Amino acid sequence: MSLPKFEYIKAQTIGEAAALAAETGDKGMVMAGGTDIIPLLKDRVKLPGYIIDLKGVPGLRQLEYTEESGLKVGALTTLREIETSAVVKSKLPAVAAAAHYVASTQVRCRGTMVGNICNASPSADTACILLVMNAAVQTAQAGGAGRVIPLSGFFKGVKQTTLEPGELVTEINIPALKSGEGSAYFKFAVRKAMDLAIIGAAVWVKMDGGRIADCRIAVGGANTTPFRAAAAEKQLIGREYGESLLAEAAATASKECRAISDVRASAEYRVDMVRVFTKRAFKEALGNLKA
Amino acid sequence: MALTSKEYYAEIEKVYKKPEDYELAGKGNGYVRVDAEAKVTGRALYTDDIDLPGMYYCKLVRSPYAHARILSIDCSEALALPGVKAVLTGKDFPEGHNLGNPEAFKELADKEPLCREKVRMVGDEVAAVCAISEELAEEASSLVKVEYEVLPAVIDPFEAMAQDAPAVHYPDTNNISMYTTMVAGEPDKAFAEADYTDKYYYKTQQMVHAAIEPHGATAKYENGEFTIWTTTQGAYVSRFWIAWGLGVPESAVRVIKPSLGGGFGGKLDAFAHELCPAKFAQITGHPVKCILKRDEVFLGTRTRHPIAFEIETAFTKEGKLLAKRCKHVLDGGAYGGSGIAANALSLICATFPYKVDNIDMTARRPYTNKPASGAMRGYSACQVHFAHDVHIDEVADALGIDPLELRRKNGITPYYTGPTGLQYTTCAFDETLAECANAVKWAARDELGEGEGIGLAGSGFMSGTGFPVLITPHYASSSTMVRLNREGYATVFTGANDIGQGSDTVMTMVVAEELGLRMDEVKCVQSDTTLTPWDAGSFGSRVTFLGGNAARRAVGDAKLKLLSHWADEWGCRPEDISMKDHRVFAGGDAEKNISFSEACFGYEEKNFGRCVSGVGSFAHEGDKDIYVKNRGNYAPAYSFSASAAKVKVDLETGEIDVQDFIFGHDCGRPLNIRAVEGQIEGSVLLGLGFTCFEECLYGEDGRHRNPTFRDYRFPTALDMPSIKSITCGQPDPEGPMGAKEAGEGSTAPVGPAIGIAINRATGLKFHSLPITSEKIWRALKEHEATGRVHFGDEGLAEKFAAVPQMRNVRHESTD
Lengths: 291, 815
What we know:
The complex is a heterodimer. Chain A has helices at residues 14-24, 37-42, 79-84, 86-91, 93-101, 105-108, 113-118, 127-132, 230-236, 243-255, 267-287, and strands spanning 7-10, 28-31, 50-53, 63-66, 70-74, 136-141, 148-150, 155-157, 160-161, 167-174, 181-188, 199-208, 211-220, 227-228. Chain A has 11 helices and 14 strands. By secondary structure, chain B is of the alpha/beta class.
């Protein structure tokens, strides 16, 4: 399949990229790995006049971790680099796992985490874990200083984010896990690779002995955007952990879905799987608490 | 009494190498694929790699409606686009020259190269455009304006057979494209006398071949001859239909099959994407290429027949199968083509792998407004063995007999003759069952944990079918020529079509083995209608059996000439001379030997320079009655298989984890053990996809809902279980060097093995495919609420009760 005609611009600086994005507006598309954009072009779903490639911009491929500021993931850092990084696997194993769930090895060698969230698919594999980790993105803006946008304020709808025209994500910041905290992400799909999630569920939890001091639950693939299951979280926070409490909260999380039926799964199935995988992710997070 | 081919070739067979002397055949790591390097380095040429100077591109215009009348086609806007060279519509092809599959049933051909008056499925081809680039051709195709009158569509095969259903093709036929019956013995009497009788319903879905290489063709027209490189499983059969569709003699068409990226039965038919570039090449004088996109492959090529089953059986209380009645309804989709064989195959498959003397079976293949169904690996067998073997497990439970024992008690034994005349030769069905049961720890199956289950299933398949692609029943199914070169090598010209399965390697091996040459001293020329002799194509598990025998007879012919010459020189018999290590040895005297080159040269010297060459053919002998009356022997041999699957079902999500898979296959002598294992592993992948993953979904308007690899999910390598392959049985006396088939029959027991394992794991009975996680989840919930056990057979009893009695059928095959 051939690509449609477009103007290809390889930006040299982030400022140039942002300016070009602002200038081209609806006619431009910003590309990092290209693994979401190229198929859209081939299928003629998008016919942009301009592709603004970030790959020539230096300094966007960082993957740095400190206990104080957590993990910084650059706009060009590939999913493969994240999933295979020794430090990510040991410090934020659920983040490495979520990166690993995306598509196939070949796609992950080009695709980026920033691209995964900017594409804003309801079933984006890395979105849920970033939501529960309270991650935030750093942006650059044409003629501005850029912003910090918490993930909770990033997704607006299917394939829609709160980024403004000419605004680009330069990095994702993921806070470190502190003592007593754990997190987990499960993707539920028809096959074990090369697939879109039927649903995904992520949990971050902070334990104080047997008590749930704090927790966050995020669900993907069920609603138009990945969302926080706030009512379920509320049910759990401050309570002593127990199987029946978790079962109740998981049922609550599933009630927070407004899932749709499609060729992958029916709405009822999605809703019940949110219950099952919220429960399983919570238990997995409990098993991974940082000492 | 006419001479049999066995008698005809008897002299040649005397110089065949003795099995105890084989150095390549049946040796595990004896040799590698002849195309291994070309393929792993990416240098192998596929159809899309054929790029010719000045090439143009063709794009087909397809119907957006499942059923509609074409009112007008306006190509003016497309033609006005700069770079567009020509357009074609149905009237550019000779009227009445419809495309089909077997030449012997040409009157059933029902597919116009481009639709003239009516479209019968979404994706039906109505026009074609030719332009200087693929992009322009694509753009021009969107500018062709077709005015349609939308007609009511029939999507469900049972609704298609209703009295008031709209006619897909022919009025007053209940849309039935093919009706087949098979009766033997005294079924009514057996049912009346049986201790146990039953009636069950099953259903399978529409799936596709999903060959990684999409269909396509490149054509040129020079010196009054068309040359077409195409993705075909049978160059000669494609040549016949392309010539017919273009209205030119076969001598004016050359078909070349380049490397093929998988066929699986989906590349047997002739298509618009072959005829249109050929016609454009003639009109423009430029070569023209047409490669389908994936959604076009889904819509415009072929699928596996969905089949609905009504099965009744009669048993004694000790578990002897007395009789079987069944009705099969096969969803034919919009066209016939290779699909017209499906009915008969479905009934034949229902008569094995268990002995049953009394049968009363019918098959109906209604047309519907969906993509055409056709041949697919394990043709009809995968569907039939799923239904009929899952059924055997239900019988075992009802009779309180161990399912393994019930199968072994009724399994076909060597040299058994079936009720309609199938003549089995070697048969290791019992051994395949026993080996699988042993490897899966069948005896310890009561010790499984919650959600775990083991399923065991068996199947058989014809090896070397002679489906009559030619009008005459006295045809050669496979032909080969071999030439011995005095420079120290041989060349084999085989008609066999390597579609990725490795037949070039097998043909090369057969010749190398017989001549005592290395594999790289045999050059293989294959599937080109100008260079290689006639072959019916790669289907019906026939290539190794028929092509391998043809290659052996061809090399045997050459060998006999060569050895007869040296027998005269040396004063011995030809059969006393052996060929090994590039040398020719006089019998009994190890000192007396000459090189292969010397031997050839000596022959040529004596025969005025004439080179040593041989020709050979092989066909399954039989007459057309096999295909018209379903009486007689369908194939020269039959393979047998068993499978055992161990699964664990997540009872909360319905997820299926196939933890272990055992495959026992009787393919006679496995000529290339690694190729046989590869076929078995590929079969398990296909069977797993069929059982748990894959299904084409349609809207009520006949629109395909998942024509992409994103939404049509076949399993990946990561979804595969570990597989243990066990080859069973003895060399077959008719097979080439003792081989029987290993590529298709091996797909058939996978579905029932996994299905039964799921049934055992969940305590439920699933009667339709695919069995997905969601279906299990839903069934478990319903079982909890209502106690219901059987799922997937909803409404089928009523539908079968309403199936019309046959009248005015366009084609009936019956006895």
